[in-house]
Amino acid sequence: MPFTISTTSSGSTAGTADVALTLSPTTALFSPAALIPGESLGSPQLSVTNSGNVDAFYFIFADWQANGTTSAVQAQILADRLNIDIAQGTTELYSGAISGLIEQPSGGRILTAANNELLTFIVSLPSTTGSIAENLNIDVDLVFVSQASPIS
Fold first, then answer.
1. Cβ-defined contacts of 97-106 (< 8 Å, 24+)
2. Would 13 be classed as within a structural domain?
């Protein structure tokens, strides 16, 4: 026997909103680097602009893959050891392995309509890495996803 439920909502309105992020620069933040354990590499700042017409939350993901002669398993080893720190001013948005950069910062980062902020990125290979990551290469794309506020 099917069960059906319905409800009526009074006073509700529907509308549209433009949710959009613009990133600058659109070129690579880091040049290929042969980091050795204990080294770090900083980037120029990345400007994140809410070019939509509503306040929006954004999240950052790392999409990484093996490069050159590095196998998928070797790429995983490097992604688990290669750290990335992302900050907006003195506020840390993420600090951890490239492989863990999934839907960060936790809960999203609010950016009001028509405003921007500058993010700083530092990539490092901990001194405890040893030789397991020697001569391994990965390509990393930083992916930004946004949604209108509030998150529901």
1. 98/62, 98/64, 98/123, 98/138, 98/140, 99/62, 99/64, 101/60, 101/61, 101/62, 101/142, 102/61, 102/62, 103/59, 103/61, 104/59, 104/60, 104/61, 105/59, 105/60
2. no
